[in-house]
UniProtKB/TrEMBL annotation:
Species, as recorded: Sphingomonas aurantiaca
GO molecular function: 4 iron, 4 sulfur cluster binding; deaminated base DNA N-glycosylase activity; metal ion binding
CDD domains xrefs: UDG-F4_TTUDGA_SPO1dp_like (cd10030)
Record-annotated Uracil-DNA glycosylase-like domain positions: 87-243
PANTHER family linked: TYPE-4 URACIL-DNA GLYCOSYLASE (PTHR33693:SF1), TYPE-5 URACIL-DNA GLYCOSYLASE (PTHR33693)
Name under which the protein is recorded: DNA polymerase
Domain of life of the source: Bacteria
Keywords from the UniProt entry: 4Fe-4S, DNA damage, DNA repair, Hydrolase, Iron, Iron-sulfur, Metal-binding
Gene Ontology biological-process annotations: DNA repair
Amino acid sequence: MGADQTIDWRNAAASALEWWHEAGVDTLVDDVPRDWFAAPEPLIVAPAAPAALSVSPSAMPLVLADFLNWRGGAEVPEASWSGISLAASGPADATVMVLVDCPDRDDGDAGALLSGGSGRLLDRMLAAIGLARDAVHVAAVCAKRPTAGRIQSEVEDRLAEIAKHHIGLVAPRQLLLLGNAASRAILGTELQAARGRLHRFNHKTAQTGTGDASDVTTVVASYHPRFLIEKPAAKAEAWKDLQMLMGEQISQKGVR
């Protein structure tokens, strides 16, 4: 019994949920009891609604301050989730933007993204390439932390659309994507495939590829600080990613 009292049941439950999510289990129970021996009901397919009656997602604000207020409101996918909605931080006209997947478990207590151990490591990573946190715009694909720490597939596309709109409002010269969810949202590519090379993101059209120089953000994908804390051996690879970002900064300064 003495050993049981030392267990952090909240973190243990969250860890178990993350494990089940990785195993492909995304529903714990049905909302109502099910009679497993009942004959299946006939499938009724409703006719498709006319295209003219389809409802498009509500328009997102075109001014960053208005967008950030909207981001914590009732029209976003996380509105019904439990927890605190954490806004982005940093200058509206930042040259460098950092995008992560979602708040860490301890960010809610501080009321800010990357406020714990992950944030301290990020600060050291930024300092290594001559950047300070207060000069960087920091945001998350999810404004709230999902229950199991993983973004549900049914909201991925909408959250990606919102994140791309956010990037367009900041229009950074460089974008650092930290973690697999951020890479998937912006580049449509798993992190391991995205790492090791520069990507171009047209923040006006929200598409990867080329465009006018003023419309293109250079993108580097790397590991999330929380992963580096768990797997210190990956820090050498993360440093290579940061060097790419730093090299692009120097190159662009030389052009100006």
